[in-house]
Amino acid sequence: MDVLTKIRERARKLKKTVVLPESEDERVLQAAEEATREEVASIYLLGNPEAIQKKAKKLGIKLEGVTIVDPQNDPQREKYQQSLFELRRHKGLSLEQAGKWLENPMYYACMMLYHGEVDGVVSGAVFSSPDVIRPALQIIKTAPGIKLASSCFLMVIPNCPYGEKGSFVYADSGFNPNPNAEELAYIAITTARTASLLLEVEPKVALLSFSTKGSAKHELVDKVIAATQLAHELRPDLLLDGELQGDAAIVPEVAQKKAPGSKVAGQANVLIFPDLNAGNICYKLSERLTGGTAIGPILQGLAKPVNDLSRGCKAKDIVDQIAVTVLQTQF
Description:
Rossmann fold, 2 domains, five-stranded parallel sheet, 13 helices
């Protein structure tokens, strides 16, 4: 059983609810139908029920079993407005402004999650990443003890002998543009936790650089070295190493030459990139050049699961992200 099929199977057993705010998008409606049919989660859609059903019928999509919530007529709306006002009044938000914010379905979805009406939110087929992340940070916030929210991608590469039978977790590939050494250490630790949940294996974490074990000298390398040292101090139990070049991280033969004695080099299944340039470019190239699947951005460190999508996603990708979101309720 491949990793994505297994994730859907595991999600099915948890019986959770996920809201999809972008009901105007055909892929989202297709995903709602598929996720409901496969019982990956109970699905909520936001929007005008008549308009949604009309569009679904035109597209040949069946939404039996899907719950449609109309924010304009939802009896919970007044409660959400009052709660949002109380959450953000210290930032100068008025009660009237809170009502206007709820016109945005992403804010409405996050208030549903905040109040426990649903177990997770998946968005980003239409919204940009900042427009998904901002309400999540403002309303859901980071989990207790978590200093930094970040993101990762679950990468599934066909016919690949590296990583976990071709499966990897890449971070940060969608959130923090240029993390400092401390932030990079926290990203590595948080991503190890995500990898353990999704892949059900011991994470082997490589902090990547253009240098392997001192082969180059530069301040960019120094950042990765410092991050590795701090991550070791914070979590000495993790299998984690750096700085490693990409080939030294995943190819055993190269690792033997460049990083002999490393418990991670040549075996890494978690790849931590030094900045968002490297992470974002690499995940997109990995997906397109190999015919692989990239699920994400998976947001990490939030108090409750909110997850992003690539705007180039397919309906299948949305269903897989729904399944990931369901699994994250176990944190």
